[in-house]
Amino acid sequence: MSEKMIQPVRGTHDLLGEEYRKHQWIHDVSYSIAQKYGYEPIATPIVESTAIFKRTIGETSDIVGKEMYTFDDRGGDSITIRPEGTAGVARAVISNSLTQSMPLKLIYDGPMMRYERPQKGRTRQFHQIGVECFGISDPLVDVETIALGAQILEQLGVAHRSILEINTIGDTDSRKAYRQALVDYFTPVSSHLSADSQARLAKNPLRILDSKDPKDQELIASAPSFDHYLNDLSQDTFRKVCQGLDALNIPYKRNPLLVRGLDYYCHTAFEFTTTDLGSQGALLAGGRYDGLVGQLSGPETPGVGWAMGVDRIALMLDQVPPQPRPIAVIAIGDETMEAAFQLAMSLRKQGIRIELAYSGNVGKRMKWADKANAYAAILLGTDEIAAQQATVRNLETGEQNLVAFAVLKDYLIDTFK
Ligand code: HAM
């Protein structure tokens, strides 16, 4: 086997140790806060029929156009590894007839795949935690959803290093009018646009506003503003979202160029961004998607949600809450190993984190206990076993006590909590 074959595939990596613990902590904090907002967990498959993504994210989006892992399965059906979670969750809502039980608040997490150029904060397999709220069109629920994201970022300690950018992309009518205005503005100068934006002009002119190309940006600076094309409903909806954020004292910055890269959005679009990760600054992003369930042939159902890039948040964390420290069980001599093993198993069952030394003399085993960052060592010799007790040595202070097996669990909990 060549060395290349035993490396992970480009743009993917193994998750272990400190990084894994960061992911787990981000997960635990997010789920526990989301639960307080009424979110229920859902897990959808990592693959969907390709049409699910094409219809919703949009044929002209970068994701569908050039980033999806799409293949024909052995039966000849076109399958795509999910590049994001929202379309699959909307599909699941329809498949499970949940459109009958609105409103619905769902939280999910898992790996997603996009064929992008890997760089800091951007991988081909990455992890998202997402929330989707279906069935409520009140703009206050947009505020609630954003507030949930803000509270999670706050609890994770990254809120002060990010800002909330928000925008409206209006309803379908407003978008249609604005789209025409952009076509009228960009067409006469289209030869000055980047090749990507020239293609967008034909297919999805709104996406030009998202371009980072310096040539495009000059033209974008004088492009017509969406605000002049928003109808009353769209303006009113956006005003209510901003008022709601103000009332909750959630700081935000209006970014009129924030249009998001997925086609299913309408009205509210938002991103919590940071400058700490270079160009890949979006940490948690989402918006309203009232047409999505309808696009998948379900009943018209309003929806709003976001997804957080877990890997990016993990890069922002200096440390995670420390692991609970173990207690080491150490047999003095091989003849007490059997009893040490039984004791270790029984204490674990009683909820105590135990490491058991399997080899070496007592000195080596004690060194190993230190390395395992154990709080204490339970030393078991033949005398102790005969007296149904153990020597418990506090590895911080060196203090030692003989403790009867019968009260060992309580002693450990009281002394080393
Ligand atoms: P998105 O903006 O495509 O939205 O992705 C959400 C977040 O996933 C990004 O802000 C970023 O943190 C993370 N992310 C995306 N691509 C990568 C990558 N290649 N490497 C690392 N992290 C990445 C969505 O996916 C929508 N489904 C969000 C949503 C939910 N809207 C409504 N509900």
- Predict the CATH topology of the largest domain: BirA Bifunctional Protein, domain 2
Largest sheet: 8 strands, mixed
Counted up, domains total 2
Number of distinct helices: 15
**Distinct ligand kinds:** histidyl-adenosine monophosphate
User: Ends: how far apart?
Assistant: 49 Å
**Spatial arrangement of strands, main beta sheet:** 1-5-6-11-10-9-7-8
Question: For the residues shown, what is the average pLDDT?
Answer: 95
Structure in words:
This protein has two domains: 4-171 and 231-316, BirA Bifunctional Protein, domain 2 (2-Layer Sandwich); 327-415, Rossmann fold. 38% of the residues lie in helices and 21% in strands. The chain is built from 15 helices and 16 strands. It has helices at 17-36, 50-57, 62-67, 86-95, 139-155, 172-186, 195-203, 214-221, 232-247, 292-295, 310-316, 337-349, 362-371, 382-386, 405-416, and strands at 40-41, 47-49, 69-72, 78-81, 104-113, 125-134, 163-168, 253-254, 266-273, 282-288, 303-309, 327-331, 354-356, 376-380, 389-394, 400-404. An eight-stranded mixed beta sheet has the order 1-5-6-11-10-9-7-8. A five-stranded mixed beta sheet has the order 13-12-14-15-16, sandwiched between helices. The longest helix has 20 residues, at 17-36. 36% of the residues are buried. The model has no long low-confidence stretch (mean pLDDT 95). Histidyl-adenosine monophosphate binds next to strand 6, strand 10, strand 11 and helix 11.
